[in-house]
């Protein structure tokens, strides 16, 4: 699948620029880390060490990884409940992620938020939002802050195909364009909202790209399983935002290998669909490309082993971490650290 | 009598009403093909077909608006809002449109609909998927508000809600989905606005709702067994209309009132009922009215934290015991 | 200004069909009634007989009138606080409208609703909604009911340019298309939201038409000050809806002669703008056309006198009507007629 | 001391803070070029320019979301929601995002913002433009809630709200916009969470907010003059944080408590404060706690109806008199 673009001169769409070897290795490394860590999360469910819900992005790693590599350290990420990868891709620690899923005090949120709200402000991971659409306007606000303060920071906002049908999507896109804000909207079209195919509930074929013109934006579709393609589009959109040319809306075509959430066996998929997409697994694609580009198998094997080692270490740390102390219940409602509503 | 889970009682209640009345249609996110994310609506698409049972986009305003428009023009829709927290994205349609339009039009418009939702905590879903927001609805004139605690009540109150010509917000409690209970055979129809005395006692009256009902019952047993305190437990079931007769009557009998609610501390339904008592049966009270609530914090996710935040059997026992002591 | 249309085969856009003389006279008559009644409302403010707020549609009558004439009696209208004309155009009585504005018991809502909520269900005027955007999804629901019951009724939903930027617009349009519902969305683009030019807050030039493609709909722009043009577009869209071909989105270009609401002197308008639009006053356009088509001035003068007579009579009726009795406060919260929330 | 209308006090308060702190930006619908539909923000665009004072589209979710995102990243935004009823179209951003994010992230995020709005009835705007929804906000953990009754409080509490590192919902009352009052010269900064005893009495304590404060004062005068009942009046000013010390202290002194609120009957702030008293100063009470509220109906539009629905001086007098009699 090639990147397709319609209309408008100053495009956020990808120029065919070269990506150097180091960048490529970082892209692979990051995809490995995201993949292995989420696979571990899956194992931890099965061991009943993760309670509540959890939403894996297995198969969608190329997008988070490409942006993670392309973004400046002081840029901001806003993502969803399916945000483990996006948060980690900004540098949040694996034990912070796994610990939060397991409800341990070493978790990014000390267990207070849970899997759907991963946040690491120091790393620019400005939060995972669990109500569909809410974070799009919030990302717009961060972009307003960057514009106002002249910092050239960019807010990147990830969301799913299903999110394009909620009102907040529309309001956020319009305001971002009206104020020409440095924000990049990334729709990860994985074909399904929860269990319902996006095509069954959407008036257009490409839920994001076919709406871009409603905000005077160009229509950008990228192969979300190809980290290089996403990286190029990301660089262009980030540059456009930094140059003061306003927002972009990118639709990345992808697929989640597992169900919507922990509870979902994904029986609604037509037979053969998953298999077809597994052929296009972003890690598989990327490994093959690196091999073709002359990276030795040994280097790749080492990278894989290293990622696994990190995940193992993080798992041990998280498992050893205690549950959060009960006094945290009354902490941090307010900026003074407390929760008191009376004198 | 059949034994049904609270979960299955939901689809049973809806199916009972859809069989009876062609005007009843049902829609929401992932409710048809998939049978709902909580599996509360399994089988409805198969039985009633895609004209009557529909999947929607993630568009809560459109869902609620569509239910309202359809109700105004001859249908009796049931719409699902997947988690009650999401009422916040469509509250205008609920609180400003559905609740007020009949009144504003001097009765020209009738809006017979049911908005069902999964309410409440206890399942580690975190602060945006665990709220108890029945108090948001109770605060809005023009909405009826129901929250069943048992399988039989799910069916019976669902039927009453569907048959009501007024808009009803129907709060199903996530924590109860797996609970089993007897449901009367044949058509089962209950009545809105009737509280139930689920335990009779002499010393104190505990007023509870939804998941807090079984917890209050367990607490009452422990209070009796371990502390010699005999407590009445009232299942409010319906916040609007409110069965003040039963509630105040039971309070007057024991002279002590406790409310047990999942709402955060401020402005929950417990405050409302406590204030009614403080005004209307003040002279029957032998001591302070005590509310047992979630503290005024968003709900934390980790098991230990969540369990210590929502009122527990132990906290109910402890609070009643200390206040009576 | 001609009707412009982009894309799509089965168009709701106007074919150039002939409009017969009778229809034309009805269109004029209705425009007169709407105009004179609203002008009277303005006079009644000045006399302080109308309290609260009120939003006139002076200058926008062609749209309400054209739809009023084109719609079937059992079709439904959903409109906004600026809905006097739309409600009256369905047949609601002038004294019902003026009485409601004056807070009298003869008002359409017996004084309980006020000017922003005019409703006459018997006439298919299903309500005026005062919170921007809310009625779009409600109209979708009425259309669902028509589709479900197979009645071939159509829901017509009027709203302003500013409304295209709120989330409910987006959700309603998408759902209407997904379910292929018989609903006609009519955006009256009068260039301003309240006091702010729509162009200052909107990402595209044509706030509705440029968004039609986001829902797979054709882009339709019509001269909203020409009742014939609107009538043709209305007929086509209504037919399309009745034929089961789904919704339409129409952008009608127009202008309000007065301020946004009672309190607004409309000082934000650039000099000369109002004057330019007064040249294009729908009543002026229409009278000239009728004269050109051979209708005698006497017939037109008589129609004008008749409309004025009706307004005068309605004014007297409304003035003579008492304020609503206080027992109405406790009526009609519930379908049983009462307001009791307890036993 | 300058005399300012409540309306002009709004822009004065905002301007005072914008002069002091560059991080304060302000936006909303029709607030800049037009100075606001209530003319509460006249002159701000002229003084602070279009980078800091911005008109928005009709996109309340985007407005509130933008305020939140900006607040999380270094600004201190003030956003306007034109009528408080419209919080219903953006309640998710307020109740689920702004209120909870700091807590859920274990304090990683600070959200210093002010959401201002025109609240309350009395101006014939009908049921969708007249609500008193400060109780909606009070029910949500994580929001501070302020409602001034005088010009001085508008300025002083606005300053406190802007300087607070927590999100504050600031309810300006439509009915008070034309009222004049003294405002201290120079920088005026008040404190959140401090109630004010605006009249001292011996027999009863009336707890009021916003437009109900002048009305309660008038009622207290009439009660004293015509019925020999001497009433304390407390202006709550801040619902969260709540000055329970002052409120309960004043209730304890007189032994009788009345709340006067515009909220519809069920789950208003009056219920909350009454319940606190029923629990914490039960033994100080000499009689029932009585709430004076709008009945549980949407607000009607016609003058006669609206005036008879919102608590009036006459109704306050009558209710207190009868309950004390
Ligand atoms: C307002 C709202 N409605 C419904 C939900 C329940 N929900 C959670 S995820 C989801 C599907 C989202 O689909 P999409 O945007 O495609 O993202 P994906 O899960 O595929 O990554 C739904 C309906 C929600 N969280 N918020
Ligand atoms: C959700 C919401 N936000 C703001 C308002 C206040 N308001 C009333 S009318 C209006 C302007 C609407 O503009 P438009 O849609 O163009 O309609 P017009 O008034 O021009 O007919 C605004 C902002 C409202 N009623 N509802
Ligand atoms: Mg998806
Ligand atoms: Mg307009």
Report on this structure.
The complex is a heterotetramer, with 2 copies of chain A (343 residues) and 2 copies of chain B (325 residues). Chain A starts with a strand and ends in a 23-residue tail after the last helix. Chain A has a single domain, classed as Thiamin diphosphate (ThDP)-binding fold, Pyr/PP domains (Rossmann fold, 3-Layer(aba) Sandwich). Chain A has helices at residues 21-46, 61-70, 84-89, 94-101, 135-149, 167-178, 227-242, 273-279, 282-292, 297-320; strands spanning 4-6, 76-80, 125-129, 155-160, 183-189, 219-223, 248-253. Chain A is α/β, with parallel strands linked by helices and 343 residues long. In chain A, helix 6 (167-178) links the parallel strand 4 and strand 5 (183-189). The longest helix of chain A is centred in the first third of the chain and has 26 residues, at 21-46. In chain A, helix 1 (21-46) packs across helix 10 and helix 4 (94-101) packs across helix 10 (297-320). In chain A, 39% of the residues lie in helices and 11% in strands. Chain B is an alpha/beta fold and 325 residues long. Chain B folds into 2 domains: 2-183, 3-Layer(aba) Sandwich (Rossmann fold); 196-323, 3-Layer(aba) Sandwich (Rossmann fold). In chain B, strands 3-2-4-5-7-6-12 form a 7-stranded mixed beta sheet, with helices on both faces. In chain B, 72% of the residues are buried. Chain B is built from 12 helices and 14 strands. Chains in contact: A-B, A-C, A-D, B-C, B-D, C-D. Bound molecules: thiamine diphosphate (2 copies) and magnesium ion (2 copies). One magnesium ion (MG) binds at residues 160-162, 190, 192-193 of chain A. One thiamine diphosphate sits between chains A (82, 130-132, 159-163, 190, 192-194, 260) and B (29, 58, 60, 82, 86, 89).
